[in-house]
Write a structure and sequence with these properties.
about 650 residues, alpha/beta, Rossmann fold, Dimethylsulfoxide Reductase, domain 2, Barwin-like endoglucanases, seven-stranded mixed sheet, six-stranded mixed sheet, about 30% helix
């Protein structure tokens, strides 16, 4: 297949401004650029939204959400967590009270059964997958649940190839089999959970035969997974965007959590739930309060005592209601109730579902400021562009991984040109708007965070250095907590056990974008090994891994449409159309196609995907669009 030339992104080294969106950008001084930002935000104080950055440090995210709440007086702050793992946070919080994965990476090396559900970890999380391989070498059995037979599934004892959007029926059938086989952990259920009888009734109709018809997974494979998971002394259930990026993503997460509650596979070393994050600090961004419903340390904004604590520390009044999430802010742009956006290190013009609509909405804004390291597609829409330092190697601070581990990052190189630290930029804008924040360095920001977040109080920079990272919660400066969460559920003393974990009563809800005669192919999206987010940091570079973007079709569908590898086809959905070369993939079943989400410049996949959002988490259904494939004239074949 001939490779298309990917776009090479330009590193930002100087502030850029323009008077109108029709004009080209011109270089400006920092003083002029910051003054323009202050004026643009000032005139839109009542209609402001902040996009924070899941690749930047915890300290940056802390200051960003503080800027939104103190300087602009709003809780409208969010990040790409909304695009990927907001359903994980919502589901885990509803069950256990906190939104982090319950286990450490190390534990998967010492477990007995690993369930990879909706996760091609070998490609999407290759570092984590090394821990998985160690677990397999130590004797763990792995089960892969995914519509595609991925490279991860090649390492599995069994692959359960379900139909897209049928995760809840499959989970319910697994649960029913566990119950009917007498494998439910009744002692744990009675001691640590609520709602079991209602849950038992909920899953009862999902027999193995019915589940096979709905999900496409053979009944014997469902039974095998159920018995392996329930009988294991320790089992880990891992998931990624194949579970969360659906219009019912939170319900999908709750369905998986239910399996752990049914069997007691949580709250013990080696037994737990692991949502795998796609960027270095998605977990940390939420932990720092860069979300619309929680203050730093994942403390609820609706709690009066929590608000009082932060109001006293920040000398401000915090709005006693949830702000708008990323999805809702885009809807508010349409309505005109969000007219100014401060976007730090995010590229929603390329990463949002129905990206053409997202671009149109951002063009309607009165003022858009983008603070980034590259001239992204979103930056091209801005009024002011501020060049920042990279969150790795050019900045001091901390980040938090999927396993809740806070680790130090250190400045190692000098940033190019006039690029400045994110925190310094925000503090200068805050000063222009009447707030004089003086932070000597990143450690000063971190210590302010520690004083307000019990989960982080014991994590001084010195201790982070000493232990090479610490997992939260860490409320003490003397001791470390276990690597796993929710051991309280196993306490015999009800007082120490705390609130029980409720079973989630969730029901099957098929994908919104239905296939039919006009759009007969189900398109699902994900990451490939060479893809990283929207391609800004990894696109435009020579790589033996990178083949460019293409649409994967099954051999049967390729034959049906009369196309071969490298031939360009038009891929159309109810929202848009793109031209892409074909790759024939034997691992795909007939009727299923695959493309890379967000990433490619060559093909705008997100113009195809649907903006059908989870009502709880606001995450779009990237994983289930209906498309058609049209063969193009011979002259367009890529040779």
């Amino acid at each position: 297949m001939k490779k298309r030339q990917p776009k090479t992104y330009t590193r930002l080294t100087h502030p850029l401004v323009r008077d109108t969106r029709d004009e080209p950008f011109r270089r400006a001084s920092w003083e002029e650029a910051l003054d323009r930002v202050a004026r643009g935000l000032q005139r839109n104080r009542d209609a402001f939204g902040m996009f924070a950055c899941a690749r930047a440090t915890n300290e940056m995210n802390y200051v960003a959400q503080k800027f939104a709440r103190v300087v602009m007086g709003t809780n409208n702050v969010d990040s790409c967590n909304r695009t990927c793992h907001a359903p994980s946070v919502a589901g885990l919080s509803a069950a256990f009270g906190s939104g982090g994965g319950t286990s450490s990476y190390e534990e998967i090396e010492h477990t007995d059964v690993i369930v990879m559900w909706g996760s091609n970890a070998r490609f999407a999380h290759p570092i984590f997958f090394q821990h998985v391989l160690k677990g397999i070498r130590n004797g763990a059995r792995m089960y892969a649940v995914d519509p595609r037979r991925t490279s991860t599934a090649e390492w599995a004892e069994s692959w359960l190839g379900l139909n897209v959007g049928t995760d809840i029926p499959l989970a319910h059938a697994v649960a029913r089999e566990i119950i009917h086989a007498g494998l439910a952990n009744q002692a744990f259920i009675e001691r640590a959970t609520t709602g079991y009888e209602e849950y038992k009734k909920l899953v009862e109709p999902w027999t193995l035969s019915l589940a096979e018809k709905v999900t496409g997974v053979p009944a014997r494979a469902i039974k095998e997974l159920a018995h392996a998971y329930a009988r294991a002394e320790r089992a880990q259930l891992c998931w990624t965007l194949g579970i969360t990026e659906h219009h019912n993503g939170t319900d999908n997460v709750r369905a998986l959590i239910n399996l752990s509650l049914l069997t007691g596979q949580v709250g013990r070393y080696g037994a737990g739930l692991q949502p795998l994050r796609g960027q270095n600090n998605v977990q940390g961004g939420g932990d720092m309060g860069a979300i619309p419903n929680r203050l730093p340390g994942f403390q609820d904004i609706l709690d009066p005592d929590t608000r009082l604590k932060f109001e006293s520390a920040w000398d401000t009044v915090i709005q006693p209601h949830y702000g708008l999430n990323l999805t809702e802010m885009f809807e508010a742009m349409e309505e005109g109730s969000v007219r100014a956006v401060y976007c730090i290190g995010e590229n929603p013009a390329q990463s949002e579902a129905d990206s053409d609509q997202a671009v149109r909405r951002m063009r309607q804004l009165d003022f858009l400021v983008v603070q980034d390291i590259f001239l992204t597609k979103t930056a091209e829409l801005a009024d002011v562009i501020l060049p920042a330092t990279a969150g790795w190697a050019e900045t001091d601070g901390t980040t938090t991984s999927s396993e809740r581990r806070v680790q130090r990052v250190r400045k190692a190189v000098t940033p190019p040109g006039e690029a400045r630290e994110d925190i310094d930029i925000m503090c200068d804008i805050a000063a222009r708007l009447g707030h004089d924040w003086k932070y000597a360095d990143a450690e000063a920001v971190w210590n302010e965070l520690r004083s307000l977040s019990p989960d982080h109080y014991g994590m001084t920079y010195d201790r982070l250095e000493e232990h090479q990272g610490i997992q939260w919660p860490c409320p003490s400066t003397e001791e470390l907590e276990p690597t796993y969460l929710h051991s309280r559920l196993w306490e015999k003393d009800p007082q120490r056990r705390g609130m029980p974990a409720p079973f989630g009563i969730v029901r099957h809800d098929p994908p919104v974008d239905l296939t039919d005669e006009e759009y007969p192919i189900r398109l699902t999206t994900g990451r490939r090994l060479d893809s990283y987010n929207t391609g800004v940091q990894s696109g435009g570079f020579a790589s033996p891994l990178r083949r460019g973007e293409y649409v994967e079709l099954s051999p049967e569908d390729a034959e049906r449409y009369g196309v071969v590898v490298g031939e360009e086809v038009q891929v159309s959905s109810r929202r848009g159309a793109v031209v892409a070369p074909v790759w024939v993939e034997p691992a795909l079943r007939p009727g299923l196609a695959f493309m890379t989400m967000h990433f490619p410049d060559e093909v705008d996949t997100n113009s195809l995907t649907i903006e059908a959002n989870c009502p709880i988490a606001g995450t779009a259904e990237f994983k289930a669009s209906a498309i058609r494939i049209e063969k193009l004239p011979v002259a367009t074949i890529v040779r």
